[in-house]
Amino acid sequence: MNFLYEYRDKYFGNARTVRQVVAEAIKNQNLRLAGLSNQDRESTSSNVLTLDDVASFRMDKEDFFFNKQRIGFRKRG
Fold first, then answer.
1. Helix count (H) and strand count (E) of the chain?
2. What predicted TM-score, i.e. pTM, was given to this entire model?
3. For residues 67 and 20, what is the distance between their CA atoms, to the nearest angstrom?
């Protein structure tokens, strides 16, 4: 979260960003749990995120929303 805040731009929204990060972690958790056998899934807590659930998160400025191609009007220089 510190990395995201440090490299924020004028479109950065704290709540929106946290919501997106949590949603992505939950999606990864669901995929991880779906890959387990029924026996393993019974012994695993479904309300705990693990390091595996957030391991795919990268601290890379190139992936930020404000680096994406936008649709709309361009500023005239």
1. 4, 0
2. 0.64
3. 17
Whole-number Cα distances in Å, 9 to 39, 50, 65: 46, 30, 10
Q: Tell me the per-residue pLDDT of 22-67, one tens digit each, with 9 for 90 and over.
A: 899 999 999 999 998 988 888 888 889 988 888 888 776 665 544 4
Structure tokens at 25: 């972690």
Per domain, the residue ranges of the chain are 2-58
Two tokens at 1? 């979260």
Cα–Cα distance between 55 and 4 in angstroms, integer? 16
Q: Are 28 and 50 in contact (CB under 8 A)?
A: no
Angle at 52 between CA 50 and CA 57, to 5 degrees: 110
The secondary structure of residue 6, as a DSSP letter, is H
CA gap 28, 55 in Å, rounded: 9
Instruction: For residue 27, give the 3-state DSSP assignment.
Output: helix
